Amino acid sequence: MKKYFVILLMVTFSASYAQFEDIFASGSDAEKFVTNYTQPVFRGLMFATNSAWVTSAQPIKSFHFELNISASGAFVPQSFESFKFEPSDYQYLRIESGPDVIPTVMGGNSQTRLKIVIPDNMNNEVKVLEFNSPDGIKNELPVNVVPAPAVQISMGLPLGNEVNLRYAPKLTDDNGGFFQLLGIGIKHSISQYFPSGKDENDKKKKRHFNLAAHAAYQQISAGYDDTNSNKAVHLNISTISLQGIASFDYKLISLYGAVGYSKGFTTMDVLGTYNYTYDVQDNNGNHIRTENVSVTDPLKLNYDINGMKAKAGLKLKLAFFQIFADYTLQEFPVATAGIGFKF
Asked: How far is the C-alpha of 169 from the C-alpha of 195, rounded, in Å?
């Protein structure tokens, strides 16, 4: 999983890293542009990582365990495949040519050329730099989704409770990449407060319809620190999930659904010192001078999600082994599939 998040950071920047470095010269404009460009991948990531917490309202038997391995994909809505460049939002960044609707990282190829314009002492616009707007990666994907894996272990507790844990200590590699994860969820049975009735032998009937409440919090840290410089990218994701669950649980199959609320917040910091030498031109393309520019810690980006969700799913149970799949309706719909082991 660590490699997944490091790769995600690299994919987000690698196809257009040179242009991002060019955009850094526009100062605070860079944060606005890069936030618009990268927003769908990190919003999708919050929705995807905040999935696959529950596959039944029925809690695990006390002090028994369940290990689930799943993959979720957040579908990117068409409205997030591009964004409109609003000149009033930017101080120095301008469109040189092409449309003002620009692809995001989850969009297609860009036909827009950008420029950075800084007024001189006479308040004349002077072009410092010109470059292509970054392309998106939609054409390179079989399906336009943001994927996220999850490994979760759960344990049943007394009084109709269940605890879920997702954990990885801080892991690093020789290339400066790092990853850390802590997620915890609590499920509490509501149906236990309602009588299940008795059969003809005066024994308590086995309950097939179950209700439960579930709450979860997750914190993910990932990124990389360039071992050859002071440059780095740090990503922090926090998500909260609150949901009510209902399920029909039988020996070989469970049908489950949930209605709830998701909230998430992500920060991404691009750190370090970036030095450039630019050929400064007037509006006619004539050379005026060479300019040296140094930018430190150019980007501090913020993303958030906040909204309701509804999920429906199916789980097949074969002794200690199970297979499950579900679909969640929300701003970025999420499809999840996985396997589990009970012991």
From this structure: 43
Alpha helices in 174-294 (DSSP H): none
pLDDT in tens, 138-149: 988 889 999 999
Cα 197 vs. chain centroid, distance in angstroms? 45
121 contact partners, CB below 8 Å, separation of at least 6? none
3-class SS at 191?
A: helix
Could you read off the pLDDT of 27-73 as tens digits, one per residue?
889 999 999 999 999 999 999 999 999 999 999 999 999 999 999 99
Tokens 């990389």 -> residue: 224
By three-state DSSP, how is residue 42 classified?
Answer: helix
| pLDDT given for residue 8 in this prediction | 55
Over 60: is that where the pLDDT of 16 sits? Answer: no
Please state the rounded mean pLDDT for residues 228-245: 92
Whether residue 311 contacts residue 327, with contact meaning beta carbons closer than 8 Å, is answered with yes
Q: What SS3 state is found at 173? A: coil
CA–CA separation, 317 and 335 (whole Å): 20
Q: Which amino acid is at 171?
A: L
> φ, ψ for residue 42 (rounded to 5)?
-85, -30
Show Cβ contacts of residue 187 under 8 Å, excluding neighbours closer than 6 positions. Answer: 54, 57, 59, 161, 162, 163, 164, 212, 213, 214, 245
pTM of the model: 0.89
